[in-house]
Design brief:
Shape: elongated
Low-confidence stretches: 137-162
Number of domains: 3
Largest sheet: 3 strands, antiparallel
Strand order of the largest sheet: 1-2-3
Helix content: 40-55%
Number of helices: 4
Oligomer: single chain
Radius of gyration: 33 Å
Number of strands: 3
Mean pLDDT: 78
Strand content: 5-15%
Length: about 160
Amino acid sequence: MNKRNTIGNKQSVFWSTIARIILRNRTLLLLLIALATLFLGYQARDVRFTHTEANLLPDNHPINKEYTQFLETFGEEGNLIVIGVKDSLFFTSDNITAWNNLTQDILSYDETATVISLSNLKTLQKDTLNKAFVLDGKHHATHNTGNNGRIDNDDDQQHAIF
């Protein structure tokens, strides 16, 4: 008898034993499947979806520590994209022009609310005499002026800063 027939014979015995056990205990197995389905269906009511990424790194990992420090410094905003460049030649005329063009390209999308870049940075100064803030040399009230706390670029109106 060759080895292949012996292996096939053992497999045949194995599967017929499994089939016999399933058929003899089919009522019990169907009941167990029904109970497991009911239990898991009951547990499904507690399932919650999240739209945040999972933190797969341990808390003491250097990248996780750096990210935590970033959040402490800048806060967390779900719809914020930060682009940074580390280049010793960044402040050349061609690179600044390319960066400003990129800023304008990003700002041209309807989905983009605002872009803060070197070309449009504002200077915020405290006016202690009037107890207000001055932005780019314009006086801005420290109370709500109806624009939900946004600082608009319209030079003709007062703007709230919170």
